[in-house]
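Hey, sorry for the delay on this. The queue was backed up all week. Below are the sequences that define the complex (chains, strands and the ligand SMILES where applicable).
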Amino acid sequence: MSGYDAIVIGAGHNGLVHAAYLARAGKKVLVLERRPVVGGATITEEIFPGFKFLTGSYLISLLRPEVIRELSLAKHGLELMPLESTLVPLQSGDYFADWPDHDMTREEIARHNRRDADIYPEYAATMKRIALWVKPLLDIAPPNPASNDPRDKMAMAMIAERLRAMSKSDFDLLCRLLTTSAADFLDEWFEGEALKGTKCTSGIIGTFLGPRSAGTGYVLLHHYLGEIDGVFRAWAFPRGGTGAFAQAVYSAARSFGVEVRTNAAVKQVIIKDGVAKGVALENGDEFYARRIISNADAKVTFLNLVDKKELSPDFVNDIRRFRTTSAACKVNLALDGLPTFTSIPKGKEALYRGSIEIAPSIDYVEKAYDDAKYGGWSTRPFMDALIPSLLDPGMAPPGKHVMSLFVQYASSELEGGWNAEKRATFLDIVIDTLSQYSPDIKSKILFKHINTPDELERQFALSSGNIFQGELALHQLFFLKPVPTFAHYKSPIKHLWMCGASTHPGGCITGAPGRNAAMSLLRDFQEESA
Amino acid sequence: MRDGMGMLSLKVTPFHPRTSELMQGNAWRRWAGFTVASCYEMAPDREYLAIRNACALIDVSPLFKYRVSGKDSLAFLNRLVTRDLSKLSVGQVAYGPWCDSRGKVVDDGTVMRLDDHEFRLTSAESSWRWLGDNAHGFDVFIADESDETAALSLQGPTSRALLEKLTGVRLSDVKYHWMRSIEIAQRPVLLTRTGYTGDLGYELWIRAEHALDVWDAVVSEGASFGLMPCGIWAMDVARIEAGLVMLDVDYTPSPKAFTANQASSPFELGLGWAVHLHKGDMVGKKALMQDRLKTDGLKLTGLEIDHAAFMSAHEELGLLTPLPFIPWRVVTPLFLDREQVGYATSGTWSPTLKKYIALAQVAARVARAGNKLTIDLMVDRERRPFAAVTTTLPFFNPERKRA
Ligand SMILES: Cc1cc2nc3c(=O)[nH]c(=O)nc-3n(C[C@H](O)[C@H](O)[C@H](O)COP(=O)(O)OP(=O)(O)OC[C@H]3O[C@@H](n4cnc5c(N)ncnc54)[C@H](O)[C@@H]3O)c2cc1C
């Protein structure tokens, strides 16, 4: 069995995007997915009959607009509905709201702190301006700063050019963002606890760090990148859930001729004389191709799928050191009707349709982190909730609702390890915390489901359950991602490539690693035939 | 929430119970987060005529108002704004801009000296943070009185007579940019001889809870003085005729400027006369000293657009000329021999001058009056160049404004 130009291991959204770009350029591509469904962590699952659960990702913001255009995803069914608001219920019973309207938000911030209201537009503009400088770095394969290759040198020169074009004050701010914590950075701008609480969450989403940890300033900026593209300007919910987005990419990929096999777990990459030649499945089947591209994370790829004898010990150590410890969980609730959030006043019911964030202050979030730091979990977790069925009635039966909760922190390195009982206990903590703000939630729950880090690892083959296939931390970004020696989507094994969230620019639903890797690989094909 | 999903709403001014009764054409707009009238009647024509021929009543409550008091209040404000306030007497008002440390305009507004150590500052944007940040080291107390203070602008040739009738007090000795405490409907009102129309006019500063009493008294007495409630459109025509710049329209306040280029120095906005560099330290002084001498910047200028050509271009096509009776606010490029030399920021048909006028930012070298530039305007479905001659501002400056 041969004749493929490329085999992609994993049908996560990046694997599918990657395959689609290769096939669009005329390559013969096979995608092998271990699960019965495609999408990886970008999936909608009907775990309880009639209710569609978002067991992995739940919102889209950083998706590269060119991926939508170039793969004609709208034609393949992608529909995005921007979230309109953010509600932060406060422990006092009051609330803080971020509205889709400048005047409304201004008024709301002023209700809590007038100085913050004045400075907020300046803050938002500054973050967007800095994000604008950083954005082009998302769409290129990271150059090696220490290399003499003219291509690396040119790319480095482009980056230097951009930095030089920044104003001095923006450059200073960028340096500060890269080095401080989200909390310190926000403290420089704002006074109000509620505003800082909700803003700091962008700095810690998906990272096992607290808002006072250095490095979270960068993550804050990372999440602003999604706001400047003019496409979404906000987090958006794809109709049918994130799984529907994966289905759109799947449909696009097939339209270009990509062959996708599910229930096809790759056991090992077949390597001959240091060159990747094909893959062997768990069931013994073998497939051969000119290039093998792994959508699985860096640890799974190099520590499980590649015979370690083929790798240098240095490289193996680098991969072992790649930080994946995680503290993110995903909860889904099937609800018998809409729950009440007591802090939402009459006339402001539109807030139910937006994000509901349990992050009343920086201290609250930091304490949640403290609890989990040493192999534990938060006694009062940070949560980002959403009621998708209000945006897309198809997510639940008529009159019923689903609620999606992204929850931090519960350590992947839980003392004594995870088991069913511990998962149930933490799920109770989540619901108890939620019921402080929504007293009737418990009475509405028909079914509840939690994905803790161990479950995320088991289901999605994510090392330590890390939602981004590796921590979004400065020391493992850009030309350091996943490891300093191999940041070009290539690997030490000839013809074995990477295209997943472990590679630049990293996690989230972006399609960027898949697309960037395809661009590099197509050039590689070209150079080979030249 | 099931039906309707709740209503988002803007703030309303203390006069809203009256203004909403007057509204005929549903022409509301936003101003600083408030709901105010663009125009009450179906068209703004009569409201404009009231400004120039009788007297117009404009709700300007969305302006921000701050009280600054304390031992250092004069020193503090004198460091904040570009004008020299040391010569400002109690009872006097000074209009001018204030700048950031790069000498770029943050906002413009008035400073009223209420007492030796007591001032009121009005601004277009919320200035709470700017005042607070600049107050470090000064013994001052700043109070935001925006919400508790309603404001009415009474503009036009009969405004004085109306106010004299209402108060029984002679007001001719309240000179341009001075103030007086008066009573209307037994309510205390601070009267300043200020406005945004370039005409004879006054602004009334009223405690919010007295707003409706004062409104009712003014409106009922106003009937015999030709008074008309008037919206923002008509006021906008008048302020362009008067050559007065508007924040967010004719310039970008520096805190909102996305890039440094978007901000303006007061010299570029025609406010050089309000920059007093001889006084002691002030925010942005160093930059302003340099900007004053700059010759490569932009300059505010008036434009007279060749409306005769504009009309015949339409008439040749058998069309009526759509003159802008409601001012436009679209940045529109200006050319000299097809090279762009600036841009117009707001334009209107001037019913008084019977001219098509605009405010513009142009390169200093073409800012002198009498330069013939071109502006591209739409004629039916085509863009065509028309002559636009630079002119000095204001376009219209009646004697009665200061008399
Ligand atoms: C709980 C959770 C919440 C999240 N929330 C958001 C969010 O709201 N917004 C957002 O933008 N991002 C979110 N993310 C992150 C985002 O989902 C991921 O970064 C993104 O889906 C990664 O896509 P990928 O294609 O690179 O990798 P993955 O989705 O991890 O796909 C890898 C695929 O490879 C397959 N695979 C692995 N090993 C093998 C093998 N041996 N053989 C065959 N197949 C294999 C896996 O089964 C999987 O399908 C979230 C992630 C999680 C887990």
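The first strand of chain A starts at residue 4 and ends at 9.

I'll add it to the shared folder too.

S.
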